[in-house]
Amino acid sequence: MKPPNFSWKYALIIIGLVVLASLGVDFNRRMVRLRQLSEQKERVAAQLEGLKQTQTYLETQIAYATSEAAVVRWAYEEGKMIRPGDNPIVPLPPANSTPQPTATPVVTPPVVSNWQVWLWLFMDVKPDSR
User: Fold this and answer.
1) pTM above the 0.90 mark?
2) What is the CA radius of gyration of the chain?
3) How many helices (H) and strands (E) does the chain have?
4) Which pLDDT score is estimated for 3?
């Protein structure tokens, strides 16, 4: 029996193919990671934009709240204050008038018999609410 021919040429080709396959797998792994990181970057950029808009809105609100116009508005509307020279107007009810109470309607729940409730539970047929 003849021993197999061992050639360095074939050994180098096999080693080269193994190295090439290893490089291909590594390249694919890196491309997947790049895609994941790119998506994550886009999500974070969108969150950052939303936070910047919130910050701008809050800064605007702070600027208005510390302004003279906000103080005057609060004093007139919520603080019920007046300036010297203002003539406040207070609405009064007409003389000799008695406020009429408004009647609140009484809601009575519909009476449903037990067999209708069981029918509704098992057959999904709503009972007549008379």
Assistant:
1) no
2) 41
3) 3, 0
4) 67
